Amino acid sequence: MGMLGLPFLTRSTDFSAKIYVTEPSARIAQLMMEDLVEMHMEYRQFYGPEGSHFPHWMEWEELEMLPFQLRDVALGRDGSELGGWMPLYSAADVKDCMRKIHTLKYGEEGCYNGTLVIKAFSSGLEIGTCNWTISSPKRNITCLSSSIFVSSHAMNFDYCSLQGNDTILFSDFSSMNVTEVSSPDNPTAVRIDGENLEEFATSVLKAEGEILEEIEKLAFICSCAVDSVKAGGSVLVPIGQLGIVLQLLEQVSLALESSNLKVPIFIISSVAEELLAYTNVIPEWLCKQRQEKLYSGEPLFEHVKLIQEKKIYLFPAIHSPELLSTWEEPCLVFCPHWSLRLGPVVHLLRRWCADQNSLLLLEKGVDPDLALLPFKPMSMKVLQCSFIFGIKLQKVQPLLNILLPKLVLCPEDLRKHSIPLNTNTFTFLYYSENETLRVPNLKNNIQLDIATNMASHLHWRKLKDCEMNIARLKGQLFMEQGKHRLLSREDHLDCAQTRSLLRWGSIDLKRLMIELEQMGITASVDQGEDASSLHVHQPNKALIDVRANTITISTAEENLAILVYEAIGRLLNGI
C-alpha cells in the first residue's frame, strides 16, 4: 500500500536514488498501481475534463459548495494546501518506476555504493513486507516497521535475524491509534531475572493470542455477511489489504456453504486474475502452513478451487459483458477502491446505499462519515473492521530484550503512550517530523580487511612502552560490501624491507650515552635551552644535535654515523 505513492517521486527529473524492494512487494505494488491508473482513466472518461489536467471540482466556485469536511481535505484548514494537489501518475510513469527498482529476496544482500549492505527480513504483515538491516563500517541499523509475529498467510516476523545491530529505528506507527493499559495481570509487566529473560520474551512474542483474535474477527465478519445475505441484501468489500482479502474469501465461502446458501462471489478488478494467480506461485514468501499445502499437492489458497468450482467469479470491470450476463443478487463483491472515491465500489455503493439489508465493510483508518458523505442518506449497514497491523505496545519491551540494541530511536508521539520501557538497558532517543536528530557514534574502531599476500609480508615491531606490535604497510584502500579493504600492489611488496623506518618518540640523553659507551663510543653532553647536543670524541669526531622534532647526526665517518643511528634506533619506536 505504501508503494502507491512511489511514481510521484520517480517521475521527477531530480530523482536519482536507488530503490530496494522485495520481489513480491514489487510485483503486487505494480499490479495495484496499474489498477489505480485504470480506475482513474475510467473516472476521467466519465467525469474528467477534456482539455485540462485539473478537474472541474478544483474550480473555486465548486470548492465553496463542498461540505466543510471535504473542503478541509481539499484546501486545508487555512486554505494553503490547494496548490499541493498534482495529477495522478500515468501507466508510463508506473513502468518507469518499476525500471528503477532493485528487487531482493529475504536475507539477500544488496550493496549501495560499496558502503552500505542492505538486507530484508520478513515482517509478517503482508506477503513480501519486511524490516531492513543496514550495515556500514561505523554503524549497524535495524529499520523496524509494522510487524506481526504470527501470520496466517505471510511468512512470520523474522525478528531473530535482527539481533546484533547496535541501533534500531522504530517506525511502527500502528500503536499510535491504540490505547493499551499495562495491568498486574499483563505478563509483560512482571519483573524477571536476566537468566530467564530471553526465554520469557520469546514466549510472549510467540503467543498465539493474536492469530486467534484475528480468526474470531474474520468469523464475526462472515456471520454478519451471512445474515445480510439471508435478509436478501448484498455485501460490498472494498478492503485494500491483500492478506485479509485472501483469508476472507476462504472463510466467507465456508460460512455460506455451512448455511446452505448458494450466493455468487464477484471480484471486480482489472488485475484480479493476475494478482490471485501470482499469490498461488510464491510459496517461499508464505507461512509454513501454506507451504505445507504445496508439498501435499493442494493450492496455497482456497480461491483457486473456488474459482474452478464457479463459486468465485473474476471480472476486469463492472461494465464487462460477462459480468452483466452472470450478475445476480444477493451477492458478495470484492472490489477497489477503499477510499470509496473511484473504481467499481462507487457504482455498487450507489446501487445499494438505500438497501437496509445490504452490508458495507470498511477498514479501520477510513473516516466513515467523510467517506460516505457523497452517498447520504445511507440505509445500508456499515461494519468497520480493525485488524492487527503492527506490534502491540506490551510486546515492544520483550522484543527489545531479545534484539539487545544499544540505541533505540522512537517517534516522539510514542513517548505519550504508557509503554513499560526499561530505559536502564537501552538508550532511547525520540525523533519528530522535519527535525534533525543527531545520533551518537557507537563504534570507536573500524575493522580493516587486509589482503592475504599483503599480510604475509608485514614486519611486526614491538613498541617500547606498551604491549603492542605494530607494522608499516602500503596499499590501495577500497570500500566493498560495507567493509574497508586494503589491497596490495606488487611494487610495494618488494620494497617492504629496504625502505627506511619511520621513527618517533623522545630521546633520553643519558640512556643514549650508555648505548654509545657499550659500542665503544665516548661522548659528552652539551645541554642548551632549545636544543641539546652530544659531542663524540672517540673513535672519531661527530656531533649529535637533538631538538624537539628532529635529530641530526654530523660526522665524516660513515661507519660511525651508522653506529650512532643504531643506538638512537634502540631508544625510539619505529616501523
Task: Give a concise summary.
With 575 residues, this protein is of the alpha/beta class.
Any chance you could write out the topology, listing elements then pairs?
Layout: H1 6-10, E1 19-22, H2 23-47, H3 60-65, H4 68-75, H5 91-99, E2 101-104, E3 110-112, E4 116-122, E5 130-135, E6 140-144, E7 167-170, H6 197-205, H7 209-230, E8 235-237, H8 242-258, E9 265-268, H9 272-279, H10 288-295, H11 303-308, E10 312-315, H12 321-326, E11 332-334, H13 344-352, E12 359-363, H14 368-371, E13 381-385, H15 396-403, E14 407-411, E15 427-431, E16 448-450, H16 452-455, E17 461-462, E18 469-470, E19 476-480, E20 483-487, H17 490-493, E21 503-504, H18 509-518, E22 522-527, E23 532-538, E24 542-546, E25 551-555, H19 558-571, E26 573-574
Parallel strand pairs: 1-2, 6-7, 7-14, 8-11, 8-12, 9-10, 9-11, 12-13, 14-15, 16-20
Antiparallel strand pairs: 3-4, 4-5, 5-6, 17-18, 19-20, 21-26, 22-23, 23-24, 24-25
> How large is the share of residues in beta strands?
15-25%
**Unreliable runs, pLDDT <50, ≥5 residues?**
180-195, 491-498
Whole-number radius of gyration?
36 Å
Shape: elongated
* Major sheet summary line: 7 strands, mixed
Q: What strand order characterises the main sheet?
A: 3-4-5-6-7-14-15
Helix percentage:
25-40%
Mean pLDDT: 84
C-alpha termini separation: 59 Å
Please count the helical segments: 19
The oligomeric state is: single chain
Strand pairing plus helix content: what structural class? alpha/beta
Count of extended strands: 26
